Amino acid sequence: MSKRSRRGDDFIADINITPFTDVVLVLLIIFMVAAPYIPKSAMTLNLPESAQSSEIKDGEKKVYDIIVLSSAEVILNESTIEIEALEKNIELINAAGTAEVFAVSAEASASYQQVIKVLDILKKQKIKDVYLKTESDAGGVKGF
User: Virtual CA dihedral for 115, 104, 48, 38, nearest 10 degrees?
Assistant: First the structure.
């Protein structure tokens, strides 16, 4: 929209931002109302802390190490098995009834999909204590 100035030959162009502001505020309200309904992560994981990680003492809980290899295999406490056989082994561990912790790590060349398969198997078996291993600055494997 333009208006004529006092002299009659100059035009002043005004931009009306009121409709834009209204739309932005309505979108903000919609996102604020919808935010609680956005699904959270499918699996709750206790993610590792890089600087101050906590270590699990051997006497507290039995820790089962799962290392995902670049092939379709995993290492479960130093024994190599297929990913498909992992579910049966975890089911047997779960049947023992003791409180266990599963620490998952992967080779650098392992695919992300294989790690997700392992996490899905743990979720299906209702394992709650799942940790992802990290390496400390010193090079050794640090806490969970």
Answer: 40
Strand pairing of 100-106 and 79-82? unpaired
Tell me the mean pLDDT in the region 39-47.
Answer: 59
Q: Could you tell me if 64 and 102 are in contact, meaning their C-beta atoms sit under 8 angstroms apart?
A: yes
What's the pLDDT score for residue 56? Answer: 53
- For the chain, domain boundaries: 2-37, 62-132
User: Does residue 143 contact residue 54 with C-beta atoms inside 8 Å?
Assistant: yes
CATH architecture of 62-132: 2-Layer Sandwich (3.30)
15-19, 29-33, 124-128: segment of lowest average pLDDT: 124-128
